[in-house]
# Entry
Amino acid sequence: MNRSHKNHPTVAELKGFGEDQNVPFEGIFLLREAALKTARNGSEFLSVDLGDTTGSFHFVCFSDTATFLFFHDAPLESVVRVQGMTEYYQNRFSPRIQFAEVVPEEEVDSQNLLDQLIPSTSEDREEMWVELLEFCHQIKHDALRAAVVQATTEMGDRFKTCAAAIGMHHAYRGGLLEHTVHLCRACQALLPHYPEVDQDLALSGLILHDVGKMLEYEGERVTRKSRQGILQGHVVLGYRIARKAALQNKLEPALRERLEHIILSHQGQLEWGAAVLAATPEAVFVSMLDNLDAKMGMVQQALRATPEGSEFSDYMPGLGGSVLVEPPLNPSNGDEVDG
# Structure
């Protein structure tokens, strides 16, 4: 039966029910993961993640349940309608799902369900793309500018749609573009304070630092790592993309070496995935800005995803804790502050 999605609760709304409430619900979500695992006693279970544009939630299906068979066979990225009860496990929202079915693709299309299910940047992607190309053309060195434009545009619209991560920061459609444009804006604001940083190299490095993610990730509805993403990772893939473009545009070896070093070191620490530690002014600058925008992206996501009325967000792995989502006191509105 073709039922409207309009009255179905979002993930954020479901998480708004407290731990002391057990509320029945019916919802439509995107199947993001259904991983088969084995318990200590040898029995199999599924670790399932469902989500929409407001967030995601995790629950477990044991092998003796009907939902186990459904999620075991349901294709990843399916749109599913579920019925269940809101519950919490170890202070985390983990509902008990009692029924599930795949929503037919014709219903998905006719009701534009993907717009409510696939997280995407809130900024206009076409406007950001134009802005990014403007940043590219601010690079004064001809060969460097040509290399950056080639590496940025050679995969067509992929830069516009690619996520910047699977779950850490800017983990949504257009996240890579949003993250990169934010970094370029920050670069413009901060460069006057650091005259020892070469503007062309810093801007080039920021634009290309995550370009390898266009190859690291795949999936139309759910972002996951590609084969080469698993085997090589975006640092190596980005290094190869930038090196190819630099060689084809005859960028002199000294500049090519410094551009490659920015990409190889931008993760900051070896344990975070950097191939080497930053050893030039531009590499340090890019690495620190990248870390800043990644962390603030996590904060922004926490603020967006936390149900209204909550004091703190869920635990954010990249921040090592939760985020206080209440706005600060405003003395001009009569709020008391310590003297």
